[in-house]
TrEMBL record:
Domain Multidrug resistance protein MdtA-like C-terminal permuted SH3: 310-368
Keyword Coiled coil: yes
Compartment annotation: Cell envelope
Gene Ontology biological process terms from the UniProt entry: response to antibiotic
The protein's name: Efflux RND transporter periplasmic adaptor subunit
Secretion signal span: 1-19
Residue ranges of every copy of the Multidrug resistance protein MdtA-like beta-barrel domain listed in the record: 212-304
Domain Multidrug resistance protein MdtA-like alpha-helical hairpin: 108-175
Pfam families recorded: Beta-barrel_RND, BSH_RND, HH_MFP_RND, RND-MFP_C
Length: 401
């Protein structure tokens, strides 16, 4: 059945539609007014000029202070392996024992030969004395000289036999292979029952001394010249005035800081023709054996001090020209980017001396999503030694009396 709408019904529906549209427009207007965003909060640190250390970071690898490939000095069959592979030994500790049966026999044989040689000396000496007494009773000079020669031969035989005995004793001692210094052992390449020879090419094992331990670094010859020139010009406040006496700290492979401070032990007096670097060998105490040969580390060398402003590395970036840039909050609480033509490394900071003054507010967190000219709300903060931002607690007002 067809449906019919009266004029009054149509007017009523139209009135409802108009009322709904009016309410929707009001809600949108109210929402638009509430969408005005407040200033973005950013963490800032207050800049203050102070004396900061100047540092340089180099990569390097650990090397043993002493390393020796242990080889036998006599031949024979290995009878005993007396060390724990990968363990620590003291100087003089037994490492290997070679079967000594034939060397013991050689010592006994040499002793007997020495005794025989010594037994011939008294009779030869007596003949010389007898011919001396008979010199005026018809004994010829030739007989006397022959007796003297016989005595000398007997004495020489004794010396030879004594040397042979000493050699036999040395060879017997070589059947015990002992550690030449304190160190850590490698895996053994030979086991019980293996035959070894004197002076063989293959080492039985390797012994390394790792306390103290060397850290070998490579520094650009250009940077090294710049540092030395700065110290000579008095730009760096270095007590000794010498880069070679600078303190060195290590960062381990897992990012932890090594507890001990090291010193430069030796610098090569030549520049590599292939890399343009100078080899620097540093020395660190390693009582807990935390550093092992071959381990990769990063060394931070303190080369002096300079008066300037410290910009945390997390707050800085580099522009297309390679200059350091950082964002600050100006007096109107608006963001502005500053560029620094000169910057130097100072631990986890960049040290600058221009385009900044005491009291300036450096943005250290929250700047990633804001641009220059944006209004922000600065929140006083500080950056700890690990580069983490810590917001300062707001100052509490004194109670009113």
């Amino acid at each position: 059945m067809a449906k019919y709408f009266t004029l009054s019904s149509i007017l009523f529906v139209a009135a409802l539609v108009v009322a709904g549209c009016s309410d929707q427009e009001k809600q949108q207007a109210a929402g638009g007014a509430g969408a005005a965003r407040p200033p973005s909060p950013v963490s800032v640190v207050i800049m203050k000029k102070s004396v900061q250390p100047l540092t340089t970071i180099l990569s390097g690898r650990a090397e043993a202070v002493q390393s020796a490939d242990i080889r036998p000095q006599i031949g024979g069959v290995i009878k005993e392996v007396s060390f724990r592979e990968g363990g620590f030994v003291k100087a003089g500790d037994l490492l290997y024992k070679i079967d000594d049966a034939t060397y013991v026999a050689s010592v006994e044989e040499a002793k007997a030969a020495l005794e025989k040689a010594e037994a011939s000396v008294p009779s030869a000496a007596a003949n010389v004395q007898r011919y001396e007494r008979l010199a005026n009773t018809g004994a010829t000079q030739k007989d006397y000289e022959t007796a003297q020669a016989t005595l000398l031969e007997a004495q020489a035989s004794v010396a030879q036999a004594r040397a042979t005995l000493q050699t036999a004793k040395i060879n017997l001692a070589f059947t015990e292979i002992r550690a030449p210094f304190d160190g850590v052992t490698s895996a053994t390449n030979y086991s019980i029952g293996n035959l070894v020879t004197a002076g063989q090419a293959d080492a039985l094992m390797t012994l390394r001394k790792i306390n103290p331990i060397y850290i070998k670094l490579n520094e650009s010859s250009v940077n090294l010249l710049r540092l030395r020139a700065a110290i000579a010009a008095g730009n760096l406040k270095n007590n000794a005035g010498d880069v070679d006496k600078a303190d060195i700290r290590l960062t381990m492979e897992d990012g932890t800081e090594y507890p001990s401070v090291g010193k430069i032990d030796m610098s090569e007096m030549a520049v590599s023709t292939t890399t343009g670097t100078v080899s620097i060998r540093t020395l660190f105490d390693n009582p807990q054996n935390l550093i092992l040969p071959g381990m990769y580390v990063r060394a931070t060398i303190t080369v002096g001090e300079e008066n300037g402003f410290a910009i945390p590395q997390r707050a800085g970036s580099r522009n297309a020209e390679g200059f350091l840039t950082a964002k600050f909050v100006n007096a109107d609480n608006k963001v502005e980017t500053r560029t620094f033509a000169s910057s130097k490394l100072s631990g986890n900071n960049w040290l600058v001396t221009d385009n900044v003054k005491d009291g300036d507010k450096l943005i250290v967190d929250g700047f990633q999503w804001i641009g220059d000219g944006a209004t922000v709300k600065p929140i006083p903060s500080e950056v700890d030694a690990k580069g983490l931002v810590i917001q300062q607690a707001p100052a509490t007002e004194a109670p009113k009396s």
